[in-house]
Amino acid sequence: MQAVSIKIPDSMVEYTAVESESEELLRNAMILFPYIQNETISHGKAAQILGINKLDLIALYSTLGIPYLDQTKEELQNDLAVLKKLRSRSA
Q1: Which contacts (CB < 8 Å, 24+ apart) does range 73-82 have?
Q2: Do 50 and 25 form a contact (C-beta atoms < 8 A)?
């Protein structure tokens, strides 16, 4: 691990101290999240960087209300319909 220096507003300083490994993991996961969101890195790569399992990272984000899949119910239903159609063609 390396220490880095970042500029933050003075009013944020009190929230940056972490007291446990789980808080450190959460902070680092949140630092990586924008890079997952903009598809610079994958969940798998972020998990590798953090030294944890991909499913554990997905579960961590889930506890924060950040979904792994960001589809609407309608989009998911459309995808399922396409998969069912493809599956019936190959049977």
Answers
A1: none
A2: yes
For each of the chain's 91 residues, which pLDDT tens digit applies? 898 899 999 999 998 888 999 999 999 999 999 999 999 999 999 999 999 999 999 999 999 999 998 788 898 899 999 999 999 987 6
Do residues 29 and 61 lie in contact, with contact meaning Cβ atoms separated by under 8 Å?
yes
Query: Under a CB-based contact definition with an 8 Å cutoff, are residues 79 and 44 in contact?
Result: no
Which CA distances in Å does 63 have to 17, 52, 58? Answer: 21, 16, 9
Q: Which two tokens stand for residue 34?
A: 């924008």
**Separation between Cα atoms, residue 37 and residue 44, nearest integer Å:** 13
Q: How many residues does the chain have?
A: 91
